[in-house]
Write a structure and sequence with these properties.
alpha/beta, elongated, 23 helices, single chain
Length: 477
């Protein structure tokens, strides 16, 4: 009777649609960034030690990691047929053992142990020592697996790497299996629908009644810079939130959490976008460059720590929205009113509360939000803070209407008071929809798509333009 040869599976990029080294690195940045960066700096040239240190800093849940469905199905069928399925990986031994246990694979595993980095030739030598030359089938996904494929009976090549053709030319039995990633998923990771938030850069221009191309063009370039900066931070946020996203009912489908885009591709894209954002910012003026740097630093702080702190989270969200308005003023070199900044901050406090209210209402259980500091018990407090934000915004708007600057820009003061009515209705409606869970997870994005809400905002703006006498200036009325 012919002995059935074991099926040996590489882990990163083959059995899994992710890489456990990068998974532990980003998990470590989220939990202990100082220790993680220190380990990366000290052991950059010693990958086996680096992997061991990162696992110690931030052990991850291997049962949540995305698997390659074709390889997982092959492993299941092989096990049902009585064949031994073995994991062999350059990842740390503790994680590989945990992963094998999660999926009921063989207790025999091959992995890095803190001293030896089990990769390429070293992996081939180890497997030959265990099973003999041609004594196993091997599935891998990159050119570094070529020495292992050469020693295997059957080479299973995942993702169509060029090595498949080379192996075939040498007479090896090659089976190509699906894998890889697509650009469309990467574009989704940039969250282009979120770029609509950057229309906030135009507010300073509108408030100052500066409607000329000399002001508008640099602001449009500012929007490009902020869109690139925001997308770079969205990538970082997603990489830091991998485990929390995988526990979320909808965020689990995000490109990095689902494995649709490799983490290393996300890291490279972050770098390119950050360079683009800062390059455009420098080309405009140094004040705008400073605002972009402030936005990116604040966003990184939010992703690393602040979003896990109740109320600090909401205040930081409001600050990030407010910074966009300041950025528009810096890009267009427009003087921004202190009243305006004080006015919009409580509005964004309200919208930050709406964001969390929506998430809590749509949550499927009473557990705290993954990666956040809020639970169902906080809904009433969030509602109260949102109400205070509405009251504060309307009060400041009223005080602005009777201020010297307000009366200079808006001579017909009573129309500003009328404009407060649709403004209040819009804010109250946003809070109510969040309380009922009838919103998107992001209130700004929802607001840009909500036709009724847009109508209320247009009424508010029309009344403000009328109060300023702009309609008569533009249309000769």
């Amino acid at each position: 009777m012919t002995e059935v040869k074991p099926l040996v599976l590489d882990v990163d990029g083959t059995f899994l649609r992710t890489d456990m080294l990068f998974e532990t690195f980003w998990a470590g940045l989220g939990r202990d960034p100082v220790a993680t960066l220190r380990a990366a700096a000290l052991y950059f040239r010693d990958p086996a030690r680096l992997k061991s240190e990162l696992v110690a800093i931030a052990p991850i849940r291997t049962d949540l990691l995305p698997v390659n469905p074709e390889i997982a199905d092959l492993a299941l069928q092989s096990r049902m047929a009585g064949r031994e399925v073995v994991l062999a990986s350059a990842s740390d031994k503790r994680l590989v053992e945990q992963l094998a246990a999660d999926y009921g694979l063989s207790d025999q595993i091959f992995a890095s142990d803190g001293k030896i980095n089990l990769k390429g030739k070293k992996k081939a030598e180890t497997l030959v020592a265990a099973y003999g030359a041609r004594g196993f089938d091997y599935a891998g996904d990159s050119a570094v697996d070529l020495p292992v494929w050469e020693q295997s009976e059957n080479a299973l090549v995942v993702g169509g790497v060029a090595s498949a053709r080379e192996l075939t030319a040498r007479g090896h039995n090659v089976v190509e299996m699906p894998g890889g990633w697509c650009w469309r998923a990467l574009f989704k990771a940039l969250r282009p629908h979120q770029w609509v938030k950057n229309v906030l850069l135009v507010l300073a221009m509108i408030a100052a009644h500066r409607f000329d191309l000399e002001t508008l063009v640099p602001i449009l370039w500012g929007i490009v810079a902020f869109s690139a900066a925001a997308s770079s931070i969205y990538i970082v946020n997603d990489l830091l939130d991998l485990e929390a996203d995988r526990l979320h009912p909808t965020k689990c489908r995000r490109p990095f959490a689902s494995g649709d885009v490799p983490i290393v591709v996300g890291m490279a894209t972050f770098g390119l976008l950050a360079v683009l954002a800062l390059g455009v910012a420098v080309s405009l003026n140094w004040a705008f460059f400073g605002v972009v740097v402030l936005y990116m630093i604040t966003s990184l702080a939010y992703s690393l720590k602040l979003k896990r702190m109740r109320w600090v989270d909401v205040a930081t969200l409001a600050a990030l929205y407010t910074i966009r308005v300041v950025a528009g003023a810096a890009a267009g070199e427009v003087d921004v009113s202190v009243y305006m900044l004080i006015f919009i901050f409580p509005i964004f406090i309200t919208l930050g509360c709406v964001k969390r209210l929506t998430e809590l209402t749509l949550a499927t259980n009473d557990d705290p939000l993954p990666g956040r500091g809020y639970g169902r018990k906080d809904r009433s407090d969030l509602l109260n803070v949102a109400g205070l934000g509405i009251f504060g915004a309307l009060l400041i708007f009223f005080l602005y209407s009777v201020s010297e600057q307000g009366q200079e820009l808006y001579p017909t003061t009573w129309l500003l008071w009328v404009a407060m009515i649709p403004m209040a209705v819009w804010l109250i409606r946003m809070v109510l929809l969040g309380w009922l869970g009838k919103q998107d997870y992001d209130p700004i994005v929802f607001a840009m798509r909500d036709k009724f809400g847009i109508g209320l905002l247009m009424i508010t703006l029309s009344l403000m333009f009328w109060a300023a006498g702009l309609w008569s200036q533009w249309f000769g009325g």
